[in-house]
Amino acid sequence: MLKHILAATFMAASLGAGAMADDTKPTDPQIAHIAYTAGQIDVTAAEQALRKSKNADVIAFAKVMERDHKAVNEQALALVKKLNVTPEDNAISQSLSSQAIKELATLDALDGTAFDQAYVENEVAYHKAVNGALADTLIPSAQNVELKALLETGLTLFKQHQMHAEHLAAMIK
Q1: What is the pLDDT of residue 23?
Q2: 64, 91, 119, 162: which has the highest count of C-beta atoms within 10 A?
C-alpha cells in the first residue's frame, strides 16, 4: 500500500513537469494556480497529520509544513493581487487536486506508525516531485520577475523540507 501512495503522489506532482513538457509553457496565471494548489495540498496533508499522528517528530514536521506552505501561499495571493492577475485553473492543478483527494483518503485509512511512515514517505516523494517541477518547468516558464523570485524562494525552502522529510523518514523506519 505504501508503494501505491508514493507512486500515485509522485505521479500527480510530476504532472506539473510532464504535462508541460510538450512545447507549451504554462502562463504566469497558470503557474500561480499550480504553485498555490501544490502548496495547499501540502497544507491539507499537514493538517491531516496533525489530527492523526501521535509521534512528536511527525507532529513537529507537520507544523512546519503547515506554517511554511501557508506563508508561501499567502505571499503568492498577495503577489497576484498586487499584479492584478487572476490565477488560472488548468488541467495540471485539477489533476493535482483530484490525486491529492485520493491520497488523503488512502492515508486516512492508516493509523499509528503505518500512518506516520506513509505520511513522511509521501512528503519525501511529493517534495522531490514538486521541487523538480519548480526547477525544470515553473521557474523557467515564469515571465514576471516577482513571480519567478517567489518561486525561487519557495524552491529553496521546499528543498529544506525535502531534506527534513528524508531525515525523518530514516528515523521512523
Answers
A1: 56
A2: 119
